[in-house]
Structures are given as C-alpha cells and as structure tokens.
Amino acid sequence: MNLGRAGMECGEKIGSYLGRIVINSIDKPCRKDGATLENFLRRRYMNPELELCTGCELSYKFLATPTLALAERMLKVDRDWISSMLKGRYGESWLKGIASIARGVKEFGIREPFTPASPLLVVWNLTYKCNLRCKHCYEDAGKERVEMGESEAREALEKLIDANVSAIAFSGGEPLVRKDFFELAKRAKKAGLYVSVASNGTLIDEKMARKLREVADYVEISIDGLSEKHDTFRGIPGAFERALNGVKHCLNEGIDVCIATTAWRGNLEDILKVAQMANDLGARFIHFNYIPVGRGRKELDISPKEREDLLEELARRNLENYVKLGRGDLILSTAPQFGRKTKEVAQLQGIDYLVSTHYGGINLPIEKLRSIESTANFIGGCGAGRLYLAMEPNGDLLPCTFFPREVKLGNILEDDLLEVWKKDQILEELRDRKKLWYFRKENRKVGCGACEDKLICGGCRARALAYFGNYLAPDPGCVRNAELIS
Ligand code: SF4
Ligand code: SF4
User: Do the Cβ atoms of 168 and 196 come closer than 8 Å?
Assistant: First the structure.
C-alpha cells in the first residue's frame, strides 16, 4: 500500500468516526418531542417555527445546525433546494430518505458512494402472474409458483414501513392482476412512502387510472416499440394499443407517467421513436438496460457500441431538456453508464452537469449546480443492495430484481430486514467499489475496478453476474470493457 492511499484510508476512517459521533448526538429519541433527527430536519428545511423542548432546542442550535450546514457544503447541495423538496408533494418520503442517509453514516461510516441505514427503495415483484408473455421477462412470469397470501403481504408491507423504507415500487409479473394491490398501495401511501407502479399498461382503463391516481405517485408503462414490434415482443396482438391507452388514461388523470422501453437487438431503431412519442404525449421516458436473465437470452443483447450510441443520444436529449426546461428527469436510463455519458456530453458543451443516478435526474436550477460530480459520486450509479433491494412474490429478498433467485439474501417473513441489510456479506461486497474486478491487458488495466468513473457508475452488477458468473466482474455492456468479451 502506498502512503497516499494509506493516508486516504486513514482520513476516511477518522471522518467516519467523527461522523458517527456527530450523528449519534443529534439522533436520540426525546421523551417529549419524539425522533430528534426527523424534528431537526423538519425545523431546518420545512418549518423554522417548529417548537422544540429546551434540550432539543439546544441540540438543534449547537449540534444539528452546524452538522447539517457542513453536510450541505460537503455535498454541495443548496439548503433552499432541500427545503423545496421537503415541502413538496413527496416531502414525507424525502424526509425518511434523508434521515436514513444520515443514519447510514452512523451505521456504515462516510462512504463514497453512500449506503443508507435502510433501503431507500424496495422493488416488490408482487406476483408471478401476468397477462402478457414478454420475450425478455426477468421474472419468467406466467409460471405457477408460491406467492405470499393477502395477510402475509400485509405483514411484509408493515415490515418495510417499520424498517423506514422511503419508496416502494410495485412490479411483477403484472402487479395490477393481484386483488390486494390497491389495498397494499393505499397503506404504503398512507405511511408516507413514495409509491410507484411498473405495469404493462394493458389493464389500465379509465376506471383503473382513476383508482391509480389515489394511490400511485408514478406509473411506469412498458412499450417496447411501435405497434407490431411491441406486440411481437410482448407476445400478445393488440398489446401496443392497450398499453398506449393505459398511458393516455393515466395522463388524463394527471399522474406522473413514464414510458419504459427495454433496448434489445430487435427494437433498436424504434427506441428514439418511442422516446419522441412519450415526449409528444407529455409522458417521461426511461430506457431499460437489457439484462439476460429469466426469459432474456444473451443473443438478444445489443453491443457495447450500440448501447453507447443510444446512451449518447439520450444524454444529449436529457441535457437539452435540462438547459431549456430545467428538467433533468424527463429522459432517463437504467444503464448505470448514463451518469458517465451525461457528464461527457455536458462537458463537451462546457456545462458542469450529469445525471446523478441513472434513474433519477436533477431539476436544480443551472445557477445552483455546483460541482455536481461530488454529489453524483456520493449517490453512485448502480444501487443494487446499496440503495435498494428487490422483494419476490414469495417474500424472498434479492440485491436487485435482475439478480437470479439463487442470490437470495433472506425472506421478509422469516428474517429481520434491517439485520439482513446491515450484516449480509453479499451486500457488503456490492457496496464497496474497491472490490470491483479489473484485468491486465498488456500494460493497461481494463474493467470497472480500474475505471475512473466507477463511483458515478459502478457498472451493472446483474449484467456482470449474468455474463461472468460473478457480481464483482466488469459490466460487459460498457464500451470501456468491450475488449473483454470480444
Ligand atoms: S468501465 Fe464499468 S464503471 Fe466504468 S463506465 Fe464502464 S460500466 Fe461504468
Ligand atoms: S444491478 Fe445495478 S445497474 Fe444493474 S439493474 Fe440492478 S441496480 Fe440497476
């Protein structure tokens, strides 16, 4: 180990130690006021008039205020911006998330990228049942398998709420075929979680859209190409028309709608057309990275160069939207390389901008963007087992919904979610970018482990596992790793 690296590691350890002491001092339950950390966040960002008992008032003034101001400076985020998010429509969910990030320092130390004290998001594949037969289905939906019953599902949801999860995404199979979907979504919403639904859209008529508006903050509908191409891929004639109607019904209800398109060998030429269609309809667009798991075969994958070109065009459109409309979240991608690509495209135009997670854009005014890369490094690309977990219809927990069922971490009904989150060794490995592999090629190092952008990206760990049999291997979908698979 050279002295520079040893010095950095020592600095990280001291920073983490001090961080733990500080967070501990502002995160103590108060018998009069309740959870102090949440109260301090409310007071600084939501309600300066919030009354606190004398002890909490002193802690707020002398401990919480300087700590939060320092965190804002370190992360280069604006206090007014945090205020506007916490006072906005999804304030409760943001509050849970920020508290979890702070408690993550106590639990895991100061890390780049960070790990919160509990998953910020759980993608819940609610059912294996589906009314379509998509070629690429990661869940291999349609096959009969044991699922949680209604009371078990209710119990599972209460466990997620108790663990302070801030967002839940109902997926499947097709989540809307499950009878108790609305009951579960309503409970999640009432508990202050951000609720999203990933659907094939074909079951969403006007009545269903009206009901969705009451429980869902965001509805994502999959459309994989224009007309026949979508029907062929999804395996049912008429699926395109029905999905499109689903999009329109949700938009008519004022729901935040996003059209999701998985890019594979057979639909590449349609991707940008679908993105344009989404834009014309007033919906957002997200490109889904093809991952050969479940029914998805490797032969259907696109090449690293095709992926790079697609991401470049999406990044260009994302930046254009950001500069013109102040919206960095209208066009996104689940490929973690999207952060790197938006950075490269923006740098060519002299703008310090990047999408700080591949699935969430920035809407901060351009004059307030300050060294956005440090925030992006902190947020950190691939979130498998670090920012989020997936939950199967039978309650099994996985690091990411695209991980095979063999990488089971536990089961929500049998295990303590937070114990799994804190102690599981697979999760620990996934969170540490220093563990990513690289290979030596002549005098060069090739692979995510040696990449200068491994903090903002990290490569798709599910793709690494699918191709190399190890989740720490290089992501073979990236142009920087292309020579490893040629
Ligand atoms: S080499 Fe890996 S970490 Fe670097 S940009 Fe490509 S996928 Fe991301
Ligand atoms: S492994 Fe990471 S990048 Fe890949 S799909 Fe899962 S969260 Fe996204």
Answer: yes
Ligand 2 center–CA 435 separation, angstroms = 16
DSSP category for residue 357: B
pLDDT reported for residue 337: 95
Residue ID of nearest Cα to ligand 1 atom 6: 478
Do residues 115 and 384 make contact, with C-beta atoms less than 8 angstroms apart? no
Q: Is 195 helix (H, G, I), strand (E, B) or coil?
A: strand
Kindly give the distance from the C-alpha atom of residue 448 to the centroid of ligand 1, in angstroms, as a whole number: 5
| Tokens linked to 40 | 């301090």
Question: What pTM, to 2 d.p., does this model score?
Answer: 0.92
What is the spatial distance between Cα 7 and Cα 412, in angstroms, rounded to a whole number?
41
384 close to ligand 2 (CB < 6 Angstrom): yes
Of 481, 483, 484, 485, which is best to mutate to test ligand 1, by the most ligand atoms within 8 angstroms of its C-beta? 481
- Ligand lying nearest the CA atom of residue 445: 1
Q: Which pLDDT value is given to residue 139?
A: 64
Ligand 2 center–CA 283 separation, angstroms: 23
| Per-residue tokens: 97 | 């998330």
The answer to whether the CB of 454 is under 6 A from ligand 1 is: yes
- Do residues 266 and 314 touch, judged by C-beta distance below 8 A? no
> In this structure, what token pair is assigned to residue 440?
């030596």
Mean pLDDT by 10 residues, the chain (486 residues): 61 76 89 95 96 96 92 82 89 93 92 93 92 65 82 98 96 92 98 95 96 97 83 76 96 97 93 96 96 86 97 94 88 92 90 66 55 64 94 97 95 98 97 96 94 94 96 97 84
Q: What DSSP line would sit under 122-174, residue for residue? A: EEEE--S--SS--TT-TT-TTS------HHHHHHHHHHHHHTT--EEEEESS-
